[in-house]
Amino acid sequence: MLEKDILPLFDLTNNKLARESLLNLLSEPLISQQSIIERQNLLLELKTLTPIFKGYNYPPYPFYECCNFLEQTKYKTSFSEKSLFQFKLWKRSNREIYNPLYSGISNIIVFFFPLYDKYYARISGEQYPSFKKTIHIIKNFLERFDLAENNYAIRSGTFTDKKILRILQVVDTIKTEKTFAHFLDNFILFETYISIACAIEKNKFTFPEFSENIFSVDEVYHPAVRNCVSNSLSTNKNVILITGSNMSGKSTFLRSVWLCVYLAHVGLAVPALGFTLQFFDKIFISIDHPDDIDNGLSHFMTEIKALKMVVEAAATGRCFAVFDELFKGTNMEDALWVSNKTINGLKKFSNSYFFISTHLHALDEDIDRNTVDDFFLESIVVENTPKFTYQLKRGWSNVKIGKILFEQEGLIKLLE
């Protein structure tokens, strides 16, 4: 789900290094509520930069060319001590070395000038304390190349030997001091966070709040689903059952809630108007378990193992878990028995939350509404045709549309 559902929401990066950095950030939920709040504050600070960095983009290939040039080991020829006269003499007799050097420094200037002029020159580290050091490192590195003056010189054909030698001496110093790697680390870090901040602003996501024993989400939706219907839910119980007919939107709703919980724990904003939750030590999602052929495990057995992992986590800390169509991999009788055992057993882990969708209508008669919350995704049948509102409502759904869909596809006539 990470690369398919989450990464595209925040990926406004321009190169593979920043994309990998973003993916690593998204892959690691933070270890405390305090660290989450710190990242939220950092992103709120950077959100004020989004009017400047809106539309920040560049083709990746010239970027890689600049990186390759600056990452090369020092050339045999050193320009640090060369006079202009010595440089001119060297240039005449070393064209095969000079030409790629000229191409390399020209690429640096032509590539970085518009980025510096349009974006980085307009910001100051003093304005953004969380990124003060990073911004200074980026700007100081780029300013060593006198980008505006040399870009004009290249464009106007006045890039003289004196200017060229000066840039080659700067490159020599960078290679000797090995400062490019430090610049690149900070450049990629800044691009990663700017990508997130701009995406949050673009998508109008909201930063969640943390509070003990509260789980409330307002107008949550799944941003990857076109025209997704938003829903709200608030509960003071730790086991929440979700019912609804086939195609009513149960899986989408569960993914939406899980997505918000996960993003909250990475310190990011969420696709909802508001979200309040407690801090969880572990976050699980169990949707579409396939058979594990390599280990000889059936669908049902993979469900059992996933549940065991969640229960063990809940026994030692706070966890949030989503189970979609729990125990659909076994027969109805067994599924009903183990579902009852599971629901009643999970209630005792009061510091954890468990969202479970189910297709077992008989559970309606067994659950204790005093300790378990139940909601359903609405669907109605009008003139033997199912209609889906995708609206979440409190209560239990016993609407069945399997036979209707079977008949609508003409399978009864085909099979008779």
UniProtKB/TrEMBL annotation:
Which GO biological process categories is it annotated with? mismatch repair
Claim: Metal-binding is one of the keywords in the record: no
| Cross-referenced Gene3D superfamilies | P-loop containing nucleotide triphosphate hydrolases
Cellular component aspect of the GO annotation:
cytosol
- Looking at the record, the residues that make up the DNA mismatch repair proteins mutS family domain are 237-415
Q: Which keywords accompany this UniProt record?
A: ATP-binding, DNA-binding, Nucleotide-binding
Q: A Gene Ontology MF term for this entry?
A: ATP-dependent DNA damage sensor activity
Q: Name one Pfam family in it.
A: MutS_V
SUPFAM superfamilies given in the database record: P-loop containing nucleoside triphosphate hydrolases
| Classification via InterPro entries | DNA_mismatch_repair_MutS_C, MutS, P-loop_NTPase
Which SMART domains does the record associate with it? MUTSac
Recorded hits in PANTHER family, A to Z, give: DNA MISMATCH REPAIR PROTEIN, DNA MISMATCH REPAIR PROTEIN MUTS FAMILY MEMBER
The molecule here is called DNA mismatch repair proteins mutS family domain-containing protein
Question: What organism is recorded for this protein?
Answer: Haoranjiania flava
Q: What is the lineage of its organism?
A: Bacteria, Pseudomonadati, Bacteroidota, Chitinophagia, Chitinophagales
